[in-house]
């Protein structure tokens, strides 16, 4: 079962027949964009949004390793899963692909069914932890990340939100300015990495901090509400219960048992 039937895939290969074959095979389940070299693929990334990239390794101008490296080193694109396709089947070449940040490495000739399974798995892994995260207030946000790049990005986002917890005016625009990213780019990246919108992530971070403070039992509910920038204790309590299924007091009692 395809997890995201309308995900946008970018396929990069200088071999016209193979490019057409892969595109035709995946076209029914995904939106497909094709490119014949790495430089062209990077230009497409600057103007279009992709959920996953499939690239051949051996290409002129810029090979798949270099393309993968450039993608993974750019904060705006590093969250995008990359599948590398190659005729090289040595252990060394596989290690090289992983060192450049590839999320999967598939040898040619490959089974179309296996490629589809890899795509589904990578897309599914982007969303499967959301439900657990939003229902478990003590779960650390960076653990959502599927790779080191994702984890570093989420940790940076977490630090920025934590620095502005007491500011009720803090929003996505302020976060984008701090990161020197456009609002749409930041929105897409946070959504892909965490399966949350930026506003959801800000709210969840506040509530997660609230859970931490509640567990310490050093503050009253209204004090925590003020510390975290909520307009009232009632507003804070309502948000907390809606998110975690327990009122702040009930959560605090549960932690002491």
Automatic annotation (TrEMBL):
Give one GO term, molecular function aspect.
Answer: sequence-specific DNA binding
Keywords, sorted A to Z? DNA-binding, Phosphoprotein, Transcription, Transcription regulation
4-aspartylphosphate carried by residues: 56
Q: Where is the HTH araC/xylS-type domain?
A: 155-254
Annotated Response regulatory domain ranges read: 8-123
Output the superkingdom of the source species: Bacteria
Q: Which SMART domains match?
A: HTH_ARAC (SM00342), REC (SM00448)
Entry-linked InterPro entries: CheY-like_superfamily (IPR011006), Homeodomain-like_sf (IPR009057), HTH_AraC (IPR018060), HTH_AraC-typ_CS (IPR018062), Sig_transdc_resp-reg_receiver (IPR001789), Tscrpt_reg_AraC-type_HTH (IPR020449)
Keyword Phosphoprotein appears in the UniProt entry: yes
What this protein is called in its record is Two-component system response regulator
